[in-house]
Amino acid sequence: LKEAGQSLPESLPILEINPNHAIVQQLKHASGDQIDKPAAFLYSLALLAEGGQLEDPASFSKEISRLLNGISVVY
User: Fold this and answer.
1) What is each CA distance from 71 to 1, 17, 46, in whole angstroms?
2) How many other C-beta atoms lie within 10 A of the C-beta of residue 74?
3) Are 17 and 23 spatial neighbours (Cβ–Cβ below 8 Å)?
4) How far is Cα 39 from Cα 46, in angstroms, rounded to an integer?
5) pLDDT over threshold 90, residue 31
6) Is the Cα dihedral 49, 50, 51, 57 positive or negative?
7) What is each CA distance from 64 to 11, 21, 59, 72, in whole angstroms?
8) b (16+ CB within 10 A) / e for 33-69
9) Which of 23, 30, 58, 63 is the least buried, fewest Cβ under 10 Å from its Cβ?
10) Backbone angles phi, psi at 63, to 5 degrees
11) What is the SS3 string spanning the chain?
12) Residues 66, 40: contact at Cβ < 8 Å?
């Protein structure tokens, strides 16, 4: 196509989900915010892992802080 002077069609990213992963298994039994927030967080992680940029980095940072506040870390 490029040689014929035509532009290549834009390819969209694909998010592959492992239905057997423990997190996905837990989400099967959740509803509402119990699904929405973790799903959005996982999407953001995948986007960052592939070198993408977040639409709202501040919200992502707040979510990480919220998660870290909920766990005990021993150093």
Assistant:
1) 53, 25, 22
2) 3
3) no
4) 11
5) no
6) negative
7) 30, 20, 9, 14
8) eeeeebeebbebeebeeeeeeeeeeeebeebeeeeee
9) 58
10) -65, -40
11) CCCCCCCCCCCCCCCCCCCCCHHHHHHCCCCCHHHHHHHHHHHHHHHHHCCCCCCCHHHHHHHHHHHHHCCCCCC
12) no
| Tens-place pLDDT, residues 33-73 | 788 888 899 999 999 999 999 999 999 999 899 888 888 66
Contact 55, 43 (CB under 8 A): no
Which pair of structure tokens corresponds to residue 73?
A: 């870390």
- Every domain of the chain and the residues it spans: 31-69
Structure tokens at 37: 């927030």
Cβ atoms of residues 2 and 8 within 8 Å:
yes
